[in-house]
Amino acid sequence: MNTYLLLRFLHVLGAFGFVAAHGATATVTFKIRGERDPVRIRTMLDLSASTRSLMYGSFLLLVGTGVWAGFLASWWRSGWIWTSIALLTVLFLAAFPLAVPYFRAIRRELAAPEVNAERLATLLSSPRGLWLAWVETIGIVAIIYLMMTKPF
Fold this sequence. Notes:
The chain has six helices and no strands. By secondary structure, the protein is mostly helical.
């Protein structure tokens, strides 16, 4: 197997792991909106949190092999690779201010000695989780398009 094919395989593997980890979190984000049982919500949030290692490891594999392949294939003069990197950076940076306060507030409410059902319902019905899921999904689809078509 030549180096480029191995890099491409590892890059796709990294992308798959990254998207799988995000998929678990996106699923939890949609599912908890209609849930009101604190035990079930905690369980789902723990499931989401358990995918972080996969997400970060896959992200490193994705970026590392992408950069290496960019040098190997001389793509650094192409606009599509820079646009993909910019989009990935924006997605990564946007996820933190959207996700961290949202999930932290829910966890804080669930950790209270007595969960306030009304406050929990308000947090769960916040559109923040939906914004996060849609921004990430649209961004990932755009990056896939750029990588598949290399339009510029």
